[in-house]
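Re: [help] complex structure
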Amino acid sequence: MSRIDIKKTYKLFIGGQFPRSESGRSYEIKGANGKFIANPALASRKDLRDSVTSAKSALSGWSSATAFNRGQILYRIAEIMEGRRDQFVTEIIALEGGSAKVANTQVEQAIDLWVWYAGWCDKISTIAGATNPIAGPYYNFTTPEELGVVGIIADQKDSLLGLVAAIAPVVATGNTAVVIASEKRPLPAITLSEALATSDLPAGVLNILTGKVSELAPWLASHMEIDGLDISGVDPKIESELRIAGAENLKRIHRFNKSQSPQRMLAFMEAKTVWHPIGV
Amino acid sequence: MDKNPFEYAPAPESRALVSIKGQYGLFINGAWVEPKTKDKFSTINPANEEVLSKISQASDSDVDRAVKAARAAYLKTWSKMPGKERGKYLFRIARIMQERAREFAVLETLDNGKPIRESRDVDVPLAAAHFFYHAGWADKLDHAGLGINPKPHGVVGQIIPWNFPLLMLAWKIAPALATGNTVVLKPAETTSLTALLFAEVCQQAELPAGVVNIITGDGATGAALVNHPGIDKIAFTGSTEVGKLIARSIAISGKSATLELGGKAANIVFEDAPIDEAVEGIVNGIFFNQGHVCCAGSRLIVQENIYDDLLVKLKRRMSLIRVGDPLDKNTDLGAINSAAQLAKIKELSASGDTEGAFRWSPDCQLPSKGFWFAPTIFTGVTQSHRIAREEIFGPVLSVLTFRTPQEAIEKANNTPYGLSAGIWSEKGSRILWASKALKAGVIWANTFNKFDPASPFGGYKESGWGREGGRHGLAPYLKGAK
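Output below.
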């Protein structure tokens, strides 16, 4: 008799833990072949608010970690993903269809993207900062800092690469985030969260929810403790609705079309300029 | 309190070097035109309520004319001109502003109510410096680290406030032109005169017609500009309330925007601060420009063990502030810009009384005509008081205290705003620690209210989007690689 597989329960990732939705809801995910795959959690508004609380409380620790330290942790995420390559490939094939080669390429690109952003952690301030030659006896410098808590609606198609392209630049610069995974293809996001949980990334820095984008995105946009919003994975039809909601606390709202760009870091940073007199 | 030991004879600057016309049209496509509706409104000197001139109220169709002129200038001339040549126009403008600096200063003081000492020594030289600084960027944008061959947006709609009329014009127009955009600018309705004089500077500099268009009017004109489909980008300085309206309106149109909005800056004085310098910095922080400053140090947060000493010195210093004729070269505190603003300051100050804070002002004679408010501090202020939370935009300081440095930072950051903050301490490590912890775009350590074209300015949180000045200030005027 052949062995019966152990099937995985896909849950949310909030504050370093893997809870089910507090609402008790789940939804059905089907593969590219139309067959049932899993019942991941259908996150609720309360789950989203809990995630924001986690992200907010993780912010001061993560943003004050040295850039060198953050870089090492991002690199560690790449290391752990490398060890789980087969699992990601299997999930991507099951959800997106296509060949093993295509799925493999997506996983490799996602891992390499972590490495790329890992190296940026202790360089972005050098590139985007300045000492300013002002007309007076003052020392004056500008340095980019983390924005705060960023809400991310990850790319809906490339279930792993789109997600990494959104979260890696945001955490590289010291932000924390609440992420809504691809609605129809959420499994690699949850598997990624298992890699995150074992990578020395402090609990709460990344919180990943599965569920309906149309239900969760408006709450993300209107939440007053979220400072920025990446809407790359949002249907353009609801974009203006989200931007109107986000205006209430003047969220920085961006849609990106490149997965690998310093702009993805800078869009969620704030430039701070400090003056001090020079004298004896 | 000591009696003011200094008696000054009046030393008024001459009005003779400005000639104000009886009425003004709109500056569109390099020429003066009358508004379609012929509507005019009065602009007054807030120091004595004298009517200075009649200003045009631009309607939707005037906005449309201005935007079309800017578009034509962009397509035909400005976008085709090499940066090197664009820069020369900006250099010319800077030079003409320097040549006519005193004229601008007197006009600004008449129209705005600010002391001539400030318009002469701060507003006008800084405005000219902004043009000079940005002139040099025009042919170096490839080296600004903002992408290869970065492109302008096209036509920029700019709306500026009444607190630094000419300086805010310079902050807006200089980077926009340097990066290759053309502009339609609307000054604030109470302070249009220096913008209209600037139009003459554009003519003297032979700036191609339509590159700069100046339309006057109230909020309706501003709304028409924001909503005009021919505008590619908006740059606004003003209240957070209006900033949010703009953010909502462009949520649908998809225009990009920079917003420089309100503030409620903390000015933190640690126990080891150089007290006399700190007192000067506190006074400069809140009473500069009558407190009509978005980055004003309006919340003084003092370490408890030096509170008593500091208050005595601060009150003594405040009693030496000379309030009166803005044209007098000895005046420190001029007129409140408008009756509406004065009413707002009075209303918020009254809330300080009713909510239980203690008001103090030095003895000072306020002129009988015009809009005036004595320099004022409130002590016993708590974080929930309206005067600790809302932007007063007047010469009113709220004083709070703290025991530990962590408490100071928590109080300082306890606001939806994040424009600026001040730190007073002799300890370098403490200054750098506090600078990192404060959530604000500009941190002044052992100084306050300093500005420079090379220094980026702009806020965190609800104080706005983007930076103005320095390399960082170029980015919002160029299409970034996203």
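Chain B has a mean pLDDT of 96.
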